[in-house]
Amino acid sequence: MGNSPWDLFKPAPNETQLLIHSIPLTFLPLDDVQLFPSLHQYIRNGRGVAFLSAQYLNPDPECGGQKTGSSVVVSVAPPDAFALLPSFNLFSRNQRVEQMFSSSQSSRCKKCWKFGHISNCCLSTLPICPFCSLAHIKAEHHCPNPSCPRVATSNQSSPAAYPR
Q1: Distance (Å, whole) CA 93 – CA 132
Q2: Is residue 123 within 8 Å of 45, Cβ to Cβ?
Q3: Distance between CA atoms of 101 and 64, rounded to whole angstroms?
Q4: How does strand 93-99 pair with strand 51-56?
């Protein structure tokens, strides 16, 4: 058959990734292989939610140092996510849970327009305009500069908008 452009095709995800914070390390196995069966049993019994997968947020055991807890990323079916959000009891403790959003170095935020994160995870308090860098959203951009790409596209029909 040879190389096919469809070889790299991946179907859309049909799962939701959740981040469970500060699970006590005394209840968790050291490796990712045993993590899924261990957590699946505890959460399935408590909430009736089936995990599709589980992994440590930071899989490097040396990064833990003297930590007493670790964050774990679990994948569940989208309707099951609501049963765990925003928190649930696990190992007799209330565990904080939040939806995890994937991003990479090439992801670009639509709020601050910086690379490396998405708008759901943006720490910026004010939106930034990608045209003029002032504190307003892209849709509210009104620039008096005739060389601005936004002005040039919106004023094509009005020659009076350009200075003589």
Answers
A1: 48
A2: no
A3: 23
A4: unpaired
- How many angstroms separate the CA atoms of 24 and 68, rounded? 6
Q: How far apart are alpha carbons 138 and 127 in whole angstroms?
A: 9
The structural domains of the chain, ordered by start, are 16-99 (3.30.70), 109-158 (no CATH)
Beta strands 87-90 and 51-56, pairing class: unpaired
Q: What is the pTM of this model?
A: 0.57
Q: How many CB atoms lie within 10 A of CB 34?
A: 12
Per-residue pLDDT of the chain (164 residues; tens, 9 = 90+): 456 666 666 666 688 888 888 888 888 887 778 888 887 777 766 677 888 888 888 766 555 567 778 888 888 888 888 888 888 888 788 888 888 876 666 678 888 888 877 787 788 888 888 877 788 887 887 776 666 655 444 444 444 443 43
Whether residue 127 has a cis bond before it, omega within 30° of 0: no
Q: Which residue has the tokens 């069966």?
A: 37
Residues whose CB falls within 8 Å of the CB of residue 10, separated by 6 or more in sequence, listed in order: none
Q: Which amino acid is at 75?
A: S
C-alpha 133/C-alpha 122 separation (Å) is 16
